[in-house]
Design goal:
Layout lengths: L1 H41 L4 H37 L2 H7 L4 H4 L1 H39 L17 E8 L5 E9 L8 E15 L4 E7 L2 E4 L9 E4 L2 E2 L2 E4 L1 H5 L12 H20 L21 H7 L4 H32 L1 H15 L4 H25 L5 H27 L2
Antiparallel strand pairs: 1-2, 2-3, 3-4, 3-5, 4-7, 4-8, 5-6
C-alpha cells in the first residue's frame, strides 16, 4: 500500500505544482500589466525594481491559485485512476476509498498550513514592502516624475504641466492645478505657477518636495462673488507627495499579521474601555483632542485637574467616535482572521469534494475536471468576496457566510464519498 500511497500522492502533488505554476503566471501577468505603468512608464523604474514588484505579487496570487490548482489536480488524478481501472484494482484488493484518499488528504493538510502562512504572514509583509517601491523609484531620480510638455494626472486631485526642461534637469514654467475632487464636477481650488522648479526627496520625512522660484499662487474661493486671492513669493517648498503618510495608514486589518493580531485586538479593547470609563465618569475627563488615558500636563496637580476639567460636548463626541472606531476595527480584524482561516481550509474542502467528483467524471476527464474545478473555485471564492462586500450586516451573518463554502464542501464531500463507497 505504501507504493500506492506514493504513487497517488506524487500524482496529485505534481499536478498541483503544474497547475499552480500555470495559474500563478497568468494572474501575475494580469496584475503586472495593470500596475506596471506607474513603475515602468511613469517612473522609469529599473528591472531590478520590477523583479521585486513581481515577487511581492506572488504571495497574494498563491492565496487563490494554490487551492484552485490542488482542486484541478485532484479531479484529474482521480479521474485518470478511475478511467484506467487502477482505482477498481485497489478496491478489489480490499482497500477502502478513504484509505486510497489518505495521501491526498495529507497533501491537502500540508497545503492548508502553507495557505495559513501565506494569508497571515507572507501577504501582509509583501503588502507592507510594496508600499516602498514607488518611493524607492522616486528617491533614485525624482526629476523623472514630471516630464516636460506632458500633462501629469497621477497626483490626487491635481494636474501638473511643465513647459520645458533645461540641460541641468531643472523644470521651467511649472503649472499646478488643484481641484476639489477627481470627478467631472470638481471645481478648481488653487492654481500655482513657478518660473523654475527643482524636485528633491527629503529622506528624513520621506517627502517629495518642489523647490519653487518666484511662485505665483491663486486661491479660488467657493463663493462665486469672491474673486480669487493672488499670492506671490520669492521661494517656496511645498510637498508634492508625502510617502510617510502610507506608513500611517498601516492599520487596516489586511496589513496585520496573524502573530500581531491578538496584540492589536487587546490594544483596541483597552482604548475602547478607557473611552467608556471616561465617558461614564470613572476616570477624569481629558481635554478635547487629547488621547484617552493620557497623563496630566506637567505643572498641574491631578486633583486640581480633576476638579476643574469637565466633559465637554466636543469631548463626548470624540469619545463616541473612538468607541465606534475601535469596535469597527475589532470587527473588521475578526472578519479578516476568519477569512484567512476559511481560505486556509480551502485545500481540505476541495480534497473532500474533488476526490469523489473526480471518480464520477471518468469520461473525458481532462475537460470535465477543468470545468468542475473552475465552477467549484468560482463558487467558493465568490461567496468569500460576497461576505467581504457586506458592510451593514451583523457580524455573525458575515462569519457564517465566510465559513459557508467550507461547510458546503465538507457536507457535499461526505455525501459523495458515501455514495462512491457503496457504488
Amino acid at each position: 500500500m505504501r507504493i500506492a500511497d506514493r504513487y497517488i500522492g506524487w500524482q496529485v502533488l505534481y499536478g498541483t505544482i503544474f497547475g499552480v505554476s500555470l495559474l500563478t503566471v497568468v494572474l501575475v501577468l494580469g496584475q503586472l500589466f495593470r500596475k506596471i505603468r506607474p513603475l515602468l512608464v511613469e517612473q522609469a523604474a529599473p528591472l531590478e525594481l520590477m523583479g521585486r514588484f513581481v515577487l511581492l505579487i506572488i504571495p497574494f496570487t498563491l492565496m487563490f491559485t494554490l487551492p484552485w490548482g490542488f482542486l484541478a489536480s485532484t479531479l484529474l488524478s482521480f479521474g485518470r485512476l478511475s478511467s484506467h481501472n487502477e482505482l477498481l484494482s485497489l478496491r478489489m484488493a480490499g482497500t477502502s476509498l478513504l484509505r486510497v484518499a489518505l495521501p491526498v488528504l495529507i497533501v491537502a493538510t500540508c497545503l492548508s498550513v502553507l495557505c495559513w502562512w501565506l494569508t497571515g504572514t507572507a501577504a501582509p509583509r509583501a503588502k507592507d514592502a510594496s508600499r516602498n517601491l514607488i518611493y524607492e523609484a522616486v528617491r533614485k531620480d525624482p526629476r523623472k516624475l514630471i516630464k516636460p510638455r506632458v500633462v501629469i494626472s497621477r497626483f490626487p486631485s491635481q494636474r501638473v504641466y511643465a513647459e520645458a526642461e533645461d540641460e541641468t534637469g531643472l523644470l521651467r514654467g511649472l503649472h499646478i492645478y488643484k481641484f476639489s475632487g477627481e470627478g467631472r464636477d470638481a471645481s478648481l481650488e488653487a492654481y500655482m505657477f513657478a518660473e523654475e522648479v527643482d524636485l528633491y526627496v527629503n529622506e528624513e520625512e520621506k517627502q517629495l518636495r518642489l523647490k519653487l522660484s518666484n511662485p505665483f499662487i491663486e486661491i479660488s474661493m467657493n463663493k462665486e462673488e469672491v474673486s480669487p486671492i493672488p499670492i506671490r513669493a520669492t521661494e517656496m517648498e511645498p510637498v508634492l507627495i508625502d510617502f510617510s503618510a502610507t506608513s500611517k495608514k498601516r492599520n487596516k486589518p489586511s496589513d496585520i499579521t496573524n502573530k500581531d493580531a491578538p496584540t492589536r485586538i487587546l490594544q483596541s479593547r483597552e482604548r475602547e474601555d478607557l473611552s467608556r470609563r471616561e465617558l461614564s465618569g470613572e476616570i477624569p475627563p481629558q481635554s478635547a483632542s487629547l488621547p484617552t488615558g493620557a497623563a496630566f500636563p506637567s505643572g498641574l496637580d491631578e486633583q486640581e485637574e480633576s476638579s476643574t476639567a469637565i466633559l465637554t460636548s466636543r469631548r463626548i463626541e470624540e469619545l463616541q467616535e473612538v468607541i465606534a472606531r475601535e469596535k469597527r476595527f475589532q470587527e473588521e480584524l475578526n472578519i479578516e482572521i476568519h477569512k484567512r482561516r476559511s481560505i486556509s481550509m480551502a485545500c481540505l474542502s476541495f480534497a473532500m469534494i474533488g476526490i469523489p467528483l473526480g471518480i464520477s467524471a471518468r469520461r473525458r476527464e481532462t475537460s470535465n475536471g477543468l470545468l468542475i474545478s473552475l465552477l467549484v473555485a468560482a463558487a467558493y471564492f465568490g461567496l468569500l468576496i460576497f461576505a467581504q462586500e457586506i458592510e451593514d450586516a451583523p457580524l455573525p451573518l458575515i462569519l457564517s457566510i465566510l465559513w459557508l463554502p467550507n461547510a458546503l464542501c465538507f457536507l457535499l464531500g461526505i455525501w459523495l464519498f458515501r455514495r462512491a463507497t457503496f457504488r
